[in-house]
Amino acid sequence: MTIDTDTIRHLSEVSVSVEIETEDMTLNIGPQHPSTHGVLRLVARVDGERCYDVQPVIGYMHRGYEKLSEVRTYPQVTTIVNRIDWVSGYANEIPFIVAAERLMELEVPERAQYIRLILTEMARIASHLVFNASYPLELGAATPLFFALRERERVLDLLESVTGGRFHPNFNRIGGVRPAYAAGSNTRKMSQDLPAGFLQETREAMDKVAVAVDQLEDLVAGNEIILARTRGVGVLPQEVAVAYGVSGPNLRASGVPVDLRKTQDYLPYDRFEFNVIIAENGDCWDRWHVRLQEIRESIKIIQQAIDTIPSGDLQAKVPKIIKVPKGETYVRAENPKGEMGYYLVSDGGQGPYRLKIRSASFSNISILPWILEGVLVPDIIAVMGSLDFVLGDVDR
Amino acid sequence: MPTWVTDLFSNFWVSLGGKLLLVALLIPLVGMVIGFAEMKLSAKMQARVGPYFAGGRWGWAQLIADGVKFFQKEDIVPTDADRPVFKSAPILVLVGTVALFVVIPFGPGLAFRDLDVGIFYALAVSSLSTIGILMAGWSSANKYSLIGGLRAAGQLIAYELPLVLAVVGAVILAGTMSLQGIVQAQIDAGYPYVVLQFIGFGIFMIASLAELSRIPFDMPIAESELVMGYLTEYSGFRFLFFFLAEFANMFTLSAIAATLFLGGYWLPGVPEDVLAYAGPIILIAKVFLLVFTMIWFRWTFPRFREDQLQRLAWVWLVPLAIFNIVVTAILKVVLS
Known about the structure:
Chain A is α+β, with helices and mostly antiparallel strands.
């Protein structure tokens, strides 16, 4: 995107033959606004419909999770981390738990790892479906919302049947997973497992989601107005995306084939076949389409994992009071929104000494001033929506 | 009928008052019926149920409940607002709608007033509501409202032209600007003008969608960008006025489209004496067919961008409409 702002202003000035004194307007978008996904605030200088100097103002949702986690024990921190990106709460727990397990040098049972993987991918599907629901709405089409959210409900119901929670599962334990008491076995004495029929139901649900995703693609991609609104809008070139630390589907839409599921070993992704979806142009349309296709890849992973899930324990042997040995580690994971990382420093106590959270949305919206320079007012929303951020993930 | 009754009704002021009362009752009625249809139809299209509880069955009383709710709400005027302009804007919007009702022919000789320049008058007063919208946007002392109002003005300029040009074809064919006359001409010709004027009909429908600022042309409201555009600062019954005006305008513009292109109150094969009674029903059926299409569009399409709308209007609709006029005029001369 090479819009020379000075040229545009010069052109607009020469075309006005009558001397009119004009003044740029400062437009304040948010923190209360229908499409800022929570409490993001943008301050833009508006000349007619064109915007310059867009500055995001963040911090309205700062909850101090990094500091809070210093005064919590490890099991308590899990409840905090799944509130960071609440649209995919489950996926947030994984890197933190894995970081603690690495320092403790725990061997997590295979079955637990598979369950984590299945649920993480389900969280990814849920998150991408929310994006697919809200993005057309931001462009003015209300109907895809309902079709996408209906499928998300299917996924969340399954997630709830295992973990007991829809948004904040708080399901992972250090050393494994622990399904809700009501699920699976009714007696507390026996070892708990997945609810009866869960795997079969998941398989059927995934088939239905796959059909719905095809329908959604028909509904949205077949629409000329959506194409006109998103093609070539908000183009994010590779170099810029990399320079700003953009990650996840936004980066892949710009053509950089980076997927931490392929390169990191926080979960056994290397046993499954799936593609890293990339696109070429890096415009809004590509970002939308990459996410839609990633739902299909996630479904593929889940189906394979259900086919090969081993039996066995869900929990490694851990002491009643968890103490993590002295040390530090950084675990990064491919979350639905992008790279999520926890830098965990332990002094050997019951809670983290310091926990640095690298959240995807924070880095992703750092691109906003660059990408929104010189766009039209309607495109602010189109571009902002296509970056798919969650304010809890930005402010923490 | 006793003579004093006919005398009473032939009195100018009494008949004017009666007509005004009728229009005043018709607008909320039409607004509620279309509003309810929109609620139920959008629910159907989105795999929802829609209004369900109010009134006991199908939620038929939902719109009445909403209306009562609006009247109970506080009438807020922003501190910095231009008070007289802010307060009169919704009334002006509604006046445009009322004025449109006047010329719609519901049956042979059944119109509040049959003007010789009926269609000209209809197009003129239909743009009155845009002035109200511009006033609302300007006086709200809100930047979103201001942008919404300006967009409405830009939209008016871009779409009034194709709207007028689309009508010209039908006027050339009929040889009259009276709406009654145009219907009569279609009866005489034996076919509705949409057969020849399909381009004009398409342009008219697109332009009237833009005139109504409904999706895909709802940039003046643009909920996701401008909060509610020019409506942002309105509450209570003033908001209700805008709301009613939108739905009633859907009815009136569809009625004009039906009159111009679909034969109005006339249906091929229906004898003249039946038309006198069945006319209003036939017209309303046609109107609701068009209104259904508008609702269907609304819940299927996203919205255009402002510059795309302008391009559509100036690059496609205006040249197409002029082409339509030229072809119609040539055909008229050649065939007659």
